[in-house]
Amino acid sequence: MDKNETVSCGRDLGCVPNIESSLNCVSQQGFDFVCVPIVHPRFEREFVLSLPPRPGPLTRSDLCLRSSDWTVFIVGKLSPWINLDSDLLDVRTNSEKAFTEEVKFAVHLSLPAIMMKLKSIRCTNLARCVYQLLNTRMSASVWIQIPMISPKACSDFISSDKDEEQVEDTWEWWNIFRNLCDNHKSLGVALEVSKELPPDVEIDRWLGEPVKVGILSTNLFLLNKKGYPVLPKAHQIFLSRLFKLNVQLVLTGSSKVDKGIQSYKLYLDHLYQLREANNNEEEFCKGYEDYLQCPLQPLMDNLESQTYEVFEKDPVKYSQYQKAVYEALIDRVPAAESTTKITVVMVVGAGRGPLVKATLKAASEAQRLVRIYAVEKNANAVVTLRNLQLEEWGDSVTVVSCDMRKWQAPEKADIMVSELLGSFGDNELSPECLDGVQSFLKTFVHTVARMAVGTLN
Q: 309 catalytic, yes or no?
């Protein structure tokens, strides 16, 4: 890992008298952004009662910072007194008006994210207001701040008479909330890391959610022999898992060491530099962990070159195809006939040729002779196939530019290889397409055996 790399980490501030000087100070300490209240935390407004308006502006002017600073370095926090799910109608109504007022100002500033706390499982009205907000023309993300373990559960770690049935599961708070918001893509989790980490199964469950930020209190840190802040081993392991998901961090609380708050940031950078490099599979999936791929329709639409490239980066699939074809060739052709008997292989749906390459490698490894037909309906991909045939494959491969269902094969095949399935279920119409070419196989029994071996997806 690059020793100069640093983790993206923000600083959480409770009260900011001068936002410009606070931002400069935080930047000098090595932090990348700052989380500040949109309105002063103690500035409660009254909308329900007919009281005279409080003199003065709602909050600081947008002229305090340049527009580029607001949009990059500032995350706005909702006032903590706002309670949209209160039992009292007046409190609820007043909170809704304050919520709308603060959010509108945050949108006016073009803040990159707005952070608000989820305090209990009762969150229906909050979810309604947030969902309405998300469906407006707003560019900001919404970070829902949730404790990893409920405050009651944290106290139960110390209590000897723990009643497990009464322990609240904060993941259920989030699950209800995000479902009420229709799993909106702009909704993310700001996860408060607890002093006592939950069991691994609960940690895995949290890491399956769209966690955007991990919030670390300075109370989580211990002091080493040199007086520097360090995290317990369990928290170090947890952070390494967050780093794999590109989760940002936010440090909250005052410094507990003489070295200053910047020593915490230096330590977090050190942990980030020690993280394990992604393996091939993790690198391939990077950025797509929490998303369903939009279903493609390759039979109806010709795929783009970029889409083929994504398919071909699969670190496992084509090596398994190669092994399957190798076993099929060894099974079909005895060693005594390896120099005389030719196996006809049809690659139907050849794309840009990864299955053809896998077949040729398998034939070379098995030391068996093959004659390959690469059938592809996408005329643009056929250009790539013909170039590969000219530059690498030669006469061992015949490129056929045709829909496999309409092709008239010049001979019967011994093995048929295909990766038709689709990105979601079977939206590539694999059975319908392959049914049209099964007549090209030499026997029905051979069809079942070869299809089972040759079509792996």
A: no
